[in-house]
Design goal:
single chain, about 180 residues, alpha+beta, OB fold (Dihydrolipoamide Acetyltransferase, E2P), 3 domains, 5-stranded mixed beta barrel, 3-stranded antiparallel sheet, about 15% helix, about 30% strand
Amino acid sequence: MDVSARTQKEEADLYLKQLEDFANAMKGSVGVPVIIDPKTNIAMWFDQRELRLRFLVSVEKTRKFFEGLSGGKVYATRCKQTGEVFFPPQVDCPGVKDGEVEWVELPKEGVLITYTVIYTKPYTFSHYQDYTVGIARLSNGVQVLAWVREKDPKKLKVGMKVRLEVVRREPEGYLTYELVPAEGS
């Protein structure tokens, strides 16, 4: 381990120890929850309350993607000059100044190239049973990251055929897409 890595680890350990000591000291206290960051010597507010956020984000430039889901289609964008396909869709081609893109429907057929089962979920997904997330390479070469619809992950195999399908995710009721093992895979 080099000196900088050891120093970073020591700083991180010190910071975590300080947080732990502070949390223990605050139990039963009415003090102000401020700690000093050991790296920057800056006063930091320390809070363990749950933070819930609601926000709006404009999707106007990618509206066609969401409209496509409503019609059972998954769209990507393709640079008109280079032919490169982008998924998730983006509205500019990074390789071409002022590169225009066009909307293209993604093929449904693909091959599962990797997957993992999520047992420890973020709080916002804690109401779901354990789930599987995978990456599939579609027939046009585009790779898609999505939930895999299979209750028994032991049935999944790298290299198996999958289909990209639009589904309604419950209990939220919104449309999204999933990878579904193809029949006979």
